[in-house]
User: Fold this.
Amino acid sequence: MAEPVLALSNVEKIFGGLRAVGGVSLEVRPGQIFGLIGPNGAGKTTIFNCVTGVYVPERGEVRFLGRSIVGHKPHQIALAGIGRTFQNIRLFGDMTVAENVMVAAHHTQSSGFWGAMLRTRRWSEEERALRKKAEELLEIFELRDDAEDEARNLPYGSQRRLEIARALMLQPKLILLDEPAAGMNSREADKLKDQIRWLRDRFELTIVLVEHNMQVVMGVCEHVHCVDHGETIASGSPVQVQNDPHVLAAYLGTEGEEEGRPSLEMVARMEAESGETPLSARSGQTPVIAGVETRADAAGREDQGGGEDQGEGESQGESERQGESESEDDGDSDSDSDDEDEGGSDDDEPGAAR
Ligand SMILES: Nc1ncnc2c1ncn2[C@@H]1O[C@H](COP(=O)(O)OP(=O)(O)OP(=O)(O)O)[C@@H](O)[C@H]1O
Ligand SMILES: [Mg+2]
Assistant:
């Protein structure tokens, strides 16, 4: 079997007394679309942050294309070929959509500062190639008509697609997508599946997808790995994982199997049939499934001081999500004082849309 693009072995990340990731091992094969799922707080984003150098794991190994990347800085890892998007969107809000995409790749130009100042032929050629690539990405993500608009004015779902487009400008070999369907309506989420497949084929990418929207996960992933409380509870084909009793128990907050309990497949189907954007997609929370409240939802509501009646529509939650982006936990949270590299997450990608 081909060497894995990404291999984690016994990765552990501890925040104070909390084992956010407690010895996770996984392997992502070349060209694979790999789903990483689990309830809220399971450790998914922390795993991404351990891979991208935002956090250095206390224990374990992270290998990218056979080489250890533990201890490497986020910008080194990004340039080595691991791209990512963030659970909380990070764009340059007052730059245009096109500029947000172009800016990601400018420092990869070999013609450098003087090339740009003197507008040398090599600089012009590189600039033209970058522009072509940016246009292609904007086209596939249906952002071309918005190219000259300020990023902050885009609907939420479009901002998520813009983040993916920007991450691709660095020509990653592996891309980590953290809840790309959050905030998308069900039509957009459906399209996202095709776009993810297209990306993989067009850019010969390997993709790791963290997502709560089960329609997207089950529709597009070839392998699904489920974590809960920082530990692996299932790993296998989508069918295997969606029928795994441990996975159902983790999502539904119950122990053991009971007849008549919905499987994740049923969850995905119910979401599709109702045509509703799952709560997961609107709020970034684990879905409320046909009246079944998950443990994570209950916890999330407690955290947020009351249930939110999230409205429909892709732009819902935009302002509050933008506001959250500085305080949430994509890795640059200041709340964890025992972490080595937390502040580094801004090094690897441009800042949040503000
Ligand atoms: N910087 C941090 N400092 C302290 N605790 C943290 C930090 N980042 C994450 N945690 C905690 O680690 C655990 C895992 O968090 P993580 O964000 O990785 O979960 P997740 O699976 O991405 O959840 P979600 O689906 O809600 O995004 C949670 O209990 C979280 O509160
Ligand atoms: Mg997360």
The chain has 15 helices and ten strands.
